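WARN retry 2 of 3 for item q-0093 after timeout on previous attempt; input resubmitted unchanged.
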Amino acid sequence: MTVLVVAAHPDDETLGAGGTAARFAAEGREVAWLVLGEGVTSRGGDGPEVDASLRQLRAECAAAAKVLGVAEVRHGGLPDNRFDGVELLEVVRMVEQVVEEVRPELVITHHPGDVNVDHRLTHDAVLAATRPIAGHPVRTVMCFEVP
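OK item q-0093 returned
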C-alpha cells in the first residue's frame, strides 16, 4: 500500500502524521509527502533571508523524511497563510497531479476543523482531489490534527 501525506506547511506533516508515516514505512509501505505551502513568507522579511529560510525549511523537511523513512517529499510552493488567495481549483489540481503520479491507496491530511485557513483549504482540496471515481487509486482518506 502506498501512502500520501498532504500537509499545508513544512512541519505539519511531521507533527500531524510523522509517527504514522514512520510506522507505515517500517512496515515496508511506500510513503510520500506533499507539502503545499512554502511556510515562510507570512513571517515578514524579503530577499536573501527569505530564500535562506525556504532552503532551510526544505532541508529540515527532507531530513525529517529521511529519519521517518519517507521515500519522497514534494513541495507546492503556495504562499504561506494565504491559500485563501489561491483558486481552490489550482490547489485541487496540484493534489490531483501528485495523486496520479504517486498512486496512493491512503491519503492523510489536515482535519477540517482546524483554525488555520491553509489547513482547512488543504483538507478541502484533498477531499476534492480524492473523490471516488472509477479507476482512482485512493481508497481511504484520514485526517490528523496539528498541535
